[in-house]
Every structure is written in structure tokens, then in C-alpha cells.
Amino acid sequence: MSTSRKIIHIDMDAFFAAVEQRDFPEYRNKPLVVGGNPFSRGVVATCSYEARVYGIHSAMPTTRAYRLCPQAIFVKPRFDAYREASQAIRQIFFEYTDLVEPLSLDEAYLDVTESEYNGGSATLIAKAIKAKIKQQTQLTASAGISYNKFLAKIASDMDKPDGLYLITPKQGADFIEQLQIRKFHGVGKATALKMNKLGIQIGKDLKNLSLEDLQQHFGKSGLYYYNIARGIDNRPVVSYRKSQSVGVETTFQQDLNNTEEVLEYLQQLYDKALTKVTKKQLSAHTITIKIKYFDFAQITRSRTLAKKITAAIFSKDLLAELLKNTDVGQRNVRLLGVTLSSFEDQSQLSSAEQFDLFETAP
Q1: Which CATH number, 3.30.70.270, 3.30.70.920, 3.30.460.80, 1.10.150.20, labels domain 172-228?
Q2: Active site residues
């Protein structure tokens, strides 16, 4: 296990809401929800810390957020403003290291192992980055510092907002042993519940299980849980990552209950996703549809093709095939999505490789 790396995880505090409160002084010090009309079918993208006091959180339906805090201010997202702020913040990162791995608009990993700034101190570099972000954007960030990604990400969440938290190699093992399972990055609610039923409440409980036991209960994820229980995470900070998938989705104001109507919307979403993929000069081999029913139950259906997906394929036939063995037509549909993945670089392929999905294989 390498403990010689110096990894910083920067996480902006209530990013979308903070940008709104910065740009519109009348929103400051008030419960603010970014997510649109509280009477629509939208969800909370994020909310200010003043709104979180009322139990509001991201991914919550805006209708529920309104019930929790009727006096909250609800605004539509302004992604152009968020992207602009994000780009300014990333430029600050690159002043300290070339090894920057953005995870989203509001968070990123930085590897400062070789950085000579501030005497090579990762903690001082994180402080300097936080101060420069505040000075140049009037936004606050929380920083976690440790010797791997797993611990750095957990550390950034320990002292929010405007936090700075260090987990040294000497502290790592004890820190993980005492950490509540629900706070482990990579352990979702369902997995945490399953672990609790197995008597796993804290990191020490997880560490006590053998690799064989973990793989028996959690399959391929067992090795990941085995390693993080011991503070092992050798993933490098990847400074350039190609798109892994491109997707589009939409939530409907009124539920859909007609299969043909669902197909039409899926076709529109497919066209939009394919346009995005083409603009990136990529070609996809896998198509995935997402269906969320009226009761928030969600399913996905995928198909991976031997050759790449193009505009020439009979996409409606493929989409109809993916809809088989679903409850579309019997249960109302709240949300639809289409994602294309398994990419290859189109600029390196010949046009002779274009194909019709249902052509006869040679």
C-alpha cells in the first residue's frame, strides 16, 4: 500500500446555490433551492445550507422540498453560470499541479505529490487553493487531504462548509476503523443496510470479514470493500479522461401510459444522444434506456452491438426490443433516458465500418 502520495479532494460548498447567492444578493442568508418550480415534476439539484436545516437535500422532489419549507426560494438552474465558475476554479487547480481529475462541475481530485509549492505541503497547498477560490470567485470550497483518493474524498466532507481536513498515513487505519459504514464513499444506502444486517456498523467490522466472505455477500465489489477497510486505494489521479458515456433524459409533467408515446420520446432522446456522440467524434457500441415509473421505481435495459451505432440503424426497432420485458404500457412512466456508451474514436475509423444494425453479417 502506497502512503507516499499527496492527494487533495476539493468539493465546492452547495455549489449551484452558492453561485446563485453570489450573483443575487437578495438570496443570501435565505433557504434557496435550485431545481425549478416547486409545483412541477422536478428534483432538487442542490440547496443552500439555510435550506438544509429543514431537511431538504439534492435529488429530493421539489414538491417535497416545498412542503418542508414553503418559504424557500426556488430557482431554475443556470448551468452556463455554473460552468463559467467551474472553469475559473479549475484554472486555479492547474496553477498548483497538472494532475487534476474533475469529477463534476463542483469537485476534483488533485495529486500534488510532486508539487513544490508551499514547500511541498499538501495542507498548505489546499489552504492556498481555498483562499484563491474565495478571492477570485467569492465561493467557498472544502478540502480533504490524504494519501489516497478514498480518504481524501471522505476528509473533504468532514468539516463542511469551508472545511479543511487532513488524514495522515499514521491516522488512516484508526480513522477507517471508527468510521460509520454509511459514510464510506462507494457504499450506498442499500449496501449499507445489507452490511448493517450482517453486523457491519463501522470500518472495524468490515475489516474483520475475510475477502472470501465479502465476495460471497457482495460479489465483485467484495475486493473493493476489503481494500478500503484497510485504507488501500491505489487509483491514480487521471488528468484526462475520455467520456465514458453520453446520455439524455427527461422528466414528464404528466405520466406516460402509452407504449407508442414512450417509443416516440425514446426516439427523440436517442437522436439527441447520438448527435452529442457524433460531435465528440466518437462512436458507441452500447445503448441503454432508463425508465422511471410513477412510483419512482427505476429500471434499465441495455444492448451492446458488435459494430458501432450510427444514424443509419433502425433505432425504433431496437428501442422497441429494449422495451420488451418491461412494464411500459401497464405502469405509468415518469422519466425516460437514453445513454450511449462503449466508445471508440470515430476519427481513427474508416467510413467503410459504418453499418446497418440489422444487416446480414458476412
Answers
A1: 1.10.150.20
A2: 107
